[in-house]
Design brief:
Blueprint (H helix, E strand, L loop, with lengths): L1 H28 L3 E2 L8 E2 L3 E6 L4 E5 L6 E5 L3 E2 L3 E11 L3 E8 L9 E3 L1 E4 L13 E8 L2 E11 L8 E12 L6 H25 L5 H6 L1 H35 L7 H19 L3 H10 L1 H19 L5 H4 L2 H5 L14 H10 L5 H4 L14 H14 L3 H5 L1 H12 L3 H12 L4 H9 L2 H8 L4 H17 L4 H17 L7 H15 L4 H29 L5 H7 L9 H11 L2 H14 L3 H12 L3 H14 L1 H19 L20 H18 L14 H16 L3 H21 L1
Antiparallel strand pairs: 1-13, 2-5, 3-4, 4-13, 5-12, 6-12, 7-11, 7-13, 8-9, 8-12, 10-11
Helix pairs in contact: 2-4, 2-5, 2-6, 2-7, 2-14, 4-12, 4-18, 5-12, 7-16, 7-17, 10-12, 15-18, 15-29, 17-26, 18-19, 18-29, 19-21, 20-21, 24-28, 25-26, 26-27, 27-29, 28-29
Amino acid sequence: MKKTKQIVIASSVIVPLVLTVLYLLSCTLAHPISIYPSLNKAQRSQSITRFQYSSNQTRIELNPIDDPHFSIPFEKQFRWDQKIILKIKALKQIKRSDLFLGFQGKSYAEKYKKRGVFIAEINGAVPRRTVPKILRIEYRIPAGNYRSLRFDFEGPADNGDSSSVTIEDVQLVPFPFYETVSFGYLLTILFACSLIIPGTLIYALFQGIDPSEIKAENHRKKNTANRYLIIFFPLSILFYLSLFLIWELLLFFNIPSGGLMLISFVGLTSILLGLVIIFKKGSLLIYLLKSSRREFLIFILIVLVSFFIITVRTDQPFTRIDYQWIAYGKTCNAFWAHDNMFQFVNGKAIADNEPFEKYYAYGTLAYNVQDREMLPGVIYAVYRKIVGGFSAFFEKSYLTYTILGTCMNAMVIFPLIVLSRTYFGKLNIYLFSLFISLNAFVIINYYYTWFKFTGASLFLSGLIILVSDYTRVWNWLLAGFIFGLSVNMHAGNALAIPLFFIWFAYLNMKNHKFKFRGAFLQPITLVAVFFIVNLPWSVVKKVCFREDYALIKGNYLYSVSSDEGLLASVILFFKMFPLQEQIALRFDHLISSLRFSEISLLFSLWFQQEWKFSLHYWNQTEFYYILPSIYPLLLFCIAGYYYRKKTLLPDRVNMNGSVSAGMTSGTLFGISLLTSLMVIIASYSPNSSDLTYLNPMGTLLIIHTVLIGYILNSGKLIYLFFSLYMFLTSLRLAFSL
């Protein structure tokens, strides 16, 4: 019976896998069928002023205002979805193309229309002031019995210029499974696992822990699980940095990388697994994965839901989705900039050994390459080379990059779970993860690839290490290393460090009774390691680029700039804006951060029954501003305080001995709030200073965690009403996303 069960389980996994591989191979090996000669039989509308057919190309000139279109005979029947490809030689003043499907016995209609996907020379990277070279237009057509196809073109409205398109070929190919949304879900899971497994193998290899001893001691079991959950991601980053060094060696010796990076990835992973087995750490590896299965399930659910949000309303995600698809359409129409494209461009330049100027020249991307950190681009470059060993299609797709960025951003859930468990005891981590994610600020940052949540996950991991025990030099060293990685993901994470560093340095000095060696050695160790981790990119910027500190000047110096450097810019700033004048603007920023006018407008829209716009505006406000994103949580906390007569910010639960003295949840909350307050006051620009994305997101997430943790411990009645509010919030978010 047991053997039969094993055979059934194995078959349920292997058979679908084999069928999927065979289908992928069949799609890959399928040759396109040219239906180009059908253009010679095309029927065209009067708005097409010229239709010149030849055996190697067809030039079409049209009036884009008067619905230009042409139709070709297409008497075919399909059981599976297909793809029509227009290979383009030249395109002028065409911004959109639609394909109307002519089924047997049916007339052309809007419901039978398919939007064409323009495939550019650089997939997903079409920044402003850049006119991409369009290579082809693709349309996915469903199975059915066809009689004809109608191609429609649309140009800029009221432009006055004539439009034209030159077609080299029209091809018919089976629509491959690997371009579908379903395959995207599979790739998301694979990428998620690829960030978990290497770090887990390294952690298991270097741990001298016996799982049998852990099981015998409940508190040690919890401490071990918590420590693993905040360490494996930094270790995975080291793994991919090792692969980057391998790639650099291949480049140095002029060895074509080709599929060697894929081989290196598989080889290095196999070596780690082999060492785990050789050193008899297999039982520890299994224990780590098994004991963290709930956290991994939550992580997988977050990345899958994020992928669903990204790809909803598209049937060709790997070709249709670019930075604009997400920057505007998936941010509640709140954020239009191309910040989610910087690391895509950086990674492409690194992977293809191209100069950064190819993408940044002449202010094409608003900021320069030195205005962003490079670690996300490096990791994406490694993934790009690995994926390129499978398929150039996935290597070039912007969605592949977005999936990787989503998985890296979602890593923040692990330290947040550890933090909530540490301070709030037996918290239901499924509900906690759900409630903290149901916020426009949080959920959008899961998949918006400016890597601020990735940096926040590392900052929180380093912080938890100090929270657990700040008396050990090793913990300070490890925290400094992880803080360094955090800032290498996004420089804004550095803003979260100073106040926490000062507080822990004070606690450490107090613990050592202000004796020099003990009191100062550990903080100095953290600073030294942090400096070393940040040194490589700092040196590269100093040697290869002109550092202009554009972000610092834009956010804190009113864009005042001097050619003599940052210090000269600061001096010039104080000359232009006397301190007395600054105080007024900074105070105004502080008052406006309360966002009473936005809340008032929201209520006004609500009472005027402008439901659609009010929900949309609510989501935008929650994504944009700090306090509107936490006001509901504060209200429920106050209700919980009066309902249970508890302290508003309770002391730590300390159920597993993993919290250092002097670091209560109230202290954690207070330092985080003070950090945001200092950022708001320090900012000096025409823009709002309380924008969530101008603040260190790690501290904002701490505030959310502490408030939600308190609410979930405030009694059944508060818990019930909060759950109802979260349900309504999910509907509100679904409306816009």
